Amino acid sequence: DPDSPLVYADARPRPFATWLRARLLAHVSPALSGVFAVSGPVCEKLRARGVRGVVTLGGAAIDLAQLSQRATEPIELPAGRPRIGSAVGQLEPLKGIDVLLEAFVRVVEVHPDATCLIAGEGSQHEALTRLAHQLGIAKSVHFLGYLQNPAPFLAALDLHVSPSLTEGLGTVTAQAMALGAPVIATDVGGASDVVSNGVSGLLVRPADPDALADAMIRLLGDQALASSLSAKGRELVLAHHSAERFVDETWAHYKRAVTW
């Protein structure tokens, strides 16, 4: 996200680095045949910063057949339902897992048997483990480490949450939607390209535990809404974020770029 000052995984704001990056790109873009953005919102923000020749790539590139096949692999998960999961890959401040844990405190007040499953590894593992103990939810929070194949994990969830502070697109969210999980994501970067708020999932403000808790409690308490969002989410991902569409649109952009 070119507007985010959170350039590095440690989530420390670096507004000068963000400004310099955008200025350099705007300076060199006239000499380029095209600049490829990962999502529509990122594309528009680059244009607003004076970057020329920006085009948008075709989405999350979900190969449903392959993803569904990978989802059939066996996986053992801790007991407890509903299962709320987040597959962030990297346990770094930028991913907002601390916000998810703070929000989960309110979830277990309403759903005492709920479990929070975090897939990923990184520098914040110990700090997040301590935070779970400090919040009194350690028995309900499980860190699964890095998953080489997250598909079975995503398919087993009752709710997938992406609490990131910034994202270019949100491919894991799209994968969860394709596998039928209701999703909640923070409204950052290109998330709105993947999730249509109230239609295919819920979008919430970043770094806001209360907003995230409200959304989780809402979906867990309204199965009809969760099922509706899940069905529509899967439909929209297949229509707009398939691997076939990604390849076709990217190839078309490449051909236009080299013929300008």
How would you describe the overall organization of this protein?
This protein is α/β, with parallel strands linked by helices and 260 residues long. 46% of the residues lie in helices and 14% in strands. It has 11 helices and 8 strands. It has a 6-stranded parallel sheet, sandwiched between helices. Strand 7 (183-186), helix 8 and strand 8 form a beta-alpha-beta unit. Helix 7 (171-178) packs across helix 10.
Keywords:
single chain, 260 residues, alpha/beta, six-stranded parallel β-sheet, two-stranded parallel sheet, 11 helices, globular
Share of β-strand residues: 5-15%
| Span between termini | 27 Å
Radius of gyration: 19 Å
| Percentage of residues in helical conformation | 40-55%
SS element count, helices = 11
Mean pLDDT: 92
SSE run: HEHEHEHEHEHEHEHEHHH
What is the 3D form?
globular
Main sheet strand line-up: 5-4-3-6-7-8
Instruction: Compute the number of strand runs.
Output: 8
The main β sheet shows up as: 6 strands, parallel
Instruction: Indicate the low-confidence ranges by residue numbers.
Output: none
Structure class: alpha/beta
Helix and strand arrangement:
Elements: H1 15-28, E1 35-37, H2 40-48, E2 54-56, H3 64-71, E3 83-90, H4 97-110, E4 115-121, H5 125-134, E5 141-145, H6 151-155, E6 159-162, H7 171-178, E7 183-186, H8 191-194, E8 202-204, H9 209-220, H10 223-240, H11 243-259
Parallel strand pairs: 1-2, 3-4, 3-6, 4-5, 6-7, 7-8
